[in-house]
Amino acid sequence: MAKYMMIDGLRAEFTDEKNILQVIRKVGITIPTFCYYTDLSIYGACRMCMVEDERGNIIASCSTPPKDKMVIRTNTPKLHHHRKMILELLLASHCRDCTVCEKNQKCQLQFLARRFGLDHIRFKNNRPDYPIDDSSPAIVRNMNKCILCGDCVRMCSEIQHVGAIDFVNRGSNVIVSPAFNRKLAETECVNCGQCAAVCPTGAITIRKSIADVWKAIYDPKKRVIAQVAPAVRVALGEEFGMAPGENTIGKIYAALHMIGFDLAFDTSVSADMTIIEETNELAGILEKGGERKYPLFTSCCPAWVRFAETKYPELMPYISTSKSPMEMFGAVLKEYYKPSDEECGLETYNVAIMPCTAKKMEAGRKEFIRDGKPDIDAVITTKELASMIRELGIQFPELEPMAPDMPFSIRSGGGLIFGASGGVMEAALRRLAARTNAALQEIQYSGVRGVEGTKKFSIEIGGRTVHAAVVSGLGNAENLIRLIESGEEHFDFVEVMACPTGCIGGAGQPEGFMADKIKRSQGLYTADKGALVKRSDENPVVMQLYEDGLLKYRAHELLHVHYGAAGQE
Asked: Does the pTM exceed 0.85?
């Protein structure tokens, strides 16, 4: 007989739910929470999820396992008073600049205060005024908005295994901070931004570059070029009420031209370049044969590269020297338009629109500065682009789609799926596989697709068995590295993305549940299905660059990088 609970008079059956809160949500009741995320450990700090049992006892629904025939109530006078008091105390020590806060209308504290009709704060704010830490190229910390829910701390340590921030001090002086009150830029932070993605109040946000982009657009001496990462097209629409996973790339091109960009391209084009260069490396390794201690690791994710630099520097020689698609395109565009710029008295200004916050850090690295100037001048996130669209009053859902500009107007399906976890791997294997539909299908169904944090598989390529793995989330990456180091696992090729689920779940994307991220992934694969060109090495635009264009003699110079010592520069 099935186990059940009685919740507010409703019978709720349960099986493997780990706590009462999950059972409550199962019957369609929304219990307020600040510190509960299903992927993180149970912290139980905020006490907003308290419920009352049949004896009148108040218990935390997030940390209490369900019991058969248990009777609870989620809304009683005692609970109502309890929750309002918690909210009032939190607001008493919280800054009140809601109208200019990035989280305005999306803040969980603001939402719950409105939900419970809280319109008066009786208590004084005795909290000291903390300085804002904007030292990081990607992340801004404002502890005046922190409610000590611990979501950022657990994300950084449990999921990402970085541990750049934690609770420091004691009693009423407790704050979230790097050890010894260092600035974030002085820590091992990888700039993945996942701490900001789970922050409910705007205490941690993403550093904005919108002002720099507007300045460039208004400068008549600049040729402003936008490149749009694959994952952006299946998420931007969510900011305007559209369904997750809907491909809006045509509308994005239209919006970019309305904003004032001179040219708009798809980063999938340079993703095709990345695949050509990266698979050349892999093919060379496979041809040599022999045992290598470590596999070839992908290099597209700057947060992963930073993680390896700081925690596993011994891996750096095994990370592909191929630049990320963003940096490849940045270098190619600067060189392609250099003659025209010199003739017309212009300067090309490259803007990358990314789902990733670590791209802001990558753009400023010394390795990507040539002749004293960066190849990528500014990086804005999906949400920053949405802000620019709103600022001009553009009705995004109503826009007529446009095509990308010439000459970089064709991309392969392989480059397009980079935004999904496993996309880089699949695109690489497509190029190495036999040129048959059967071979492509084998890759698709080898286990390379899906949003799981770790995927391991083997596939026959050119008469050899290639052992490969795909990991998303740095905690999963670290676990895999330890298995490789111990000799328990052996791989030839490993794709690593720092953000769980890959770029579709980047911290620069609209906030979404796992179901939303699955739809984004499906949206990319749907677009790939409709692509006329499937393989990166069959992209005519890219192959022309290699055969008799810019890359004929300069591919290594423009498309490869050798990282220096660990450090964020």
From this structure: yes
